[in-house]
Design brief:
The chain is of the alpha+beta class and about 160 residues long. It is built from two helices and ten strands; from the N terminus they run ααββββββββββ. The longest helix has 25 residues, at about 1-25. The termini are far apart.
C-alpha cells in the first residue's frame, strides 16, 4: 500500500513537472521559430556553397541546436535560446576550426532577429529573416580576424 502511494505520488509530481515544462516551452518564442527538422542552405558571398542544417530541441526545449554539415562532415553548431527576463536572443556558435562566438539579438517577434557579436569582440552582425514557413535567410556581415565577411544563406526545409 505504501509502495503504491509512493509510486502514485511520484507519478503525480513527474506529470505536473512535465506539464509545467511543456507550458514553459510552448510559451517560448523558440516554438514560433519552427526550425526543428532538416534544412538545406545555399550560401553566397565571401564564402559560397551548400550545407545541411539539422535543428533539434535540447535542454528540455529551452534551447534549439543546429548542426551544420557538408557532405556528412560536421562543420559547426549553433545553439539558440530566448531569455524572457530581458527579451534577448542568445546564440552560441562553434565552428570546425575551433572558432566560436556569442551573439545577442533583440526582436519583438520571431520572423526578424538582428544579432550582434558580444564575444569575442568582433564587428559582426547576423540577421535572421523568416521568408515563408519553409524558408529563412541568414545575412552575415562584418570583419573577422581582419577579413571582411559578407554572406547570405537561403535555407529551405526538406
Amino acid at each position: 500500500m505504501i509502495g503504491r502511494l509512493l509510486l502514485t505520488g511520484m507519478a503525480v509530481v513527474l506529470a505536473s513537472g512535465f506539464a509545467a515544462a511543456q507550458a514553459k516551452t510552448a510559451a517560448s518564442p523558440l516554438v514560433a521559430l519552427q526550425l526543428k527538422g532538416h534544412w538545406v542552405c545555399a550560401q553566397t558571398g565571401s564564402s559560397a556553397g551548400t550545407y545541411d542544417q539539422d535543428w533539434t530541441a535540447v535542454f528540455g526545449g529551452t534551447w534549439l541546436r543546429a548542426t551544420d554539415s557538408t557532405k556528412g562532415q560536421v562543420t559547426g553548431e549553433h545553439t539558440v535560446t530566448f531569455n524572457k527576463a530581458d527579451s534577448t536572443w542568445v546564440v552560441l556558435d562553434a565552428f570546425l576550426p575551433g572558432s566560436y562566438d556569442v551573439l545577442h539579438g533583440t526582436a519583438s517577434g520571431s520572423s526578424h532577429i538582428a544579432f550582434h557579436a558580444v564575444y569575442p569582440k568582433l564587428a559582426l552582425s547576423v540577421v535572421y529573416n523568416r521568408v515563408t514557413p519553409t524558408q529563412y535567410t541568414i545575412d552575415v556581415s562584418g570583419n573577422v580576424q581582419g577579413k571582411k565577411v559578407l554572406t547570405r544563406s537561403v535555407c529551405a526545409k526538406h
